[in-house]
Write a structure and sequence with these properties.
This protein has 145 residues and is of the alpha/beta class. It folds into two domains: 50 residues, 2,3-Dihydroxybiphenyl 1,2-Dioxygenase, domain 1, CATH 3.10.180; 76 residues, 2,3-Dihydroxybiphenyl 1,2-Dioxygenase, domain 1, CATH 3.10.180. The protein has three helices and eleven strands.
Length: 145
């Protein structure tokens, strides 16, 4: 997927092979450069890097949550705004594989400006991810009430 201005995001993971299995094999992100301490992935056209932090094996993930539309949204989190069909396919895949959701897939702000499909789940290292979609991404992504 070609993205005009791809972002670069680097996160900490507790195990590089576990990250490869989750992001590469399970989510289907192609792998780029790597070493024994980090690995690059193509996350829907964006440069996404997992850096090893062995200390995470003993540390708990952040428990902070912010209220949004009646749900406790984990902060920090990251993800991608997908097309609706791709979002639904990912939600179906995650459900079929028994992924535990922080927030189950649903439509947020229903009938309001910025209505969106969203879901939250964590990777094996406890990093929170949000994937969302809009019926009309071009007009709704930054729509104000």
């Amino acid at each position: 997927m070609a993205v005009k201005d791809p972002f670069h995001l680097a996160i900490q993971v507790r195990d590089i092979e576990e990250a490869r299995q989750f992001y590469g094999e399970f989510l289907g992100c192609p792998e780029g450069r790597s070493s024994n301490a980090w690995v690059d992935f193509d996350l829907y056209g964006h440069q996404f890097v997992c850096h090893l932090n062995a200390a995470l094996k003993d540390a708990a993930a952040s428990a902070h949550k912010n209220p949004v539309d009646g749900h406790g949204v984990p902060v920090p989190h990251f993800g991608v705004v997908l097309e609706m069909d791709a979002w639904q396919a990912l939600a179906d895949k995650l459900k079929a594989h028994g992924v535990e959701f922080e927030i189950e897939p649903y439509i947020r702000f229903k009938g309001e400006p910025g209505e969106q499909a969203t879901m939250f789940f964590k990777d094996p290292s406890g990093n929170a991810l949000e994937f969302k979609a809009f019926k009309d991404r071009e007009t709704q992504l930054f729509k104000k009430a």
